[in-house]
Amino acid sequence: MQIHLAKSDLSEMAVDAVVSPANSLGIMGGGVAAVLSRKGGAMIQREAMSLAPIAVGAAVVTTAGSLWARNVIHAPTMEEPGQKVTAESVRRAMRAALLAASQRGFQVIAVPGLGTGLGGADPSDAARAMVNELRAHKQPTPATVWLVDLNDQVLNHLLEALQATTP
Hints:
This protein has five helices and six strands. It has helices at residues 31-40, 42-50, 87-104, 123-136, 152-165; strands at 2-7, 17-20, 60-63, 71-74, 108-111, 144-149.
């Protein structure tokens, strides 16, 4: 698996799927999820809510509306909107997103700093949890993962985690 890091708007990534750090209810009311819903269209949230509840540690795939990406992987980091996110929740969401991508045969996905926005997860802990799951994922797909964020602090923690775990 190739892993790339970029300062980028997740909603503008032309990939097989973008990962939305969701809640179990499928409500895309804040943070990255709200941006994806606003730019991609309300049908993304409607479809996600129709598949709810989505457990933390599970993921569902919807269409991406008018986003550049073809699909959205909804990977809850919290049960209800506004809850505090832990590194364990981030780890479980990342694993679920990777498994969903693998099951669908997605070659290229983009993932933001899970739980680091409205979820309030410590960016360093979240980055380590995400990278550890990337390293543990041994399936052939996704072949490429873009770790993207607009927050420099989150990107720096992701870079540190990648460098610390490089074999």
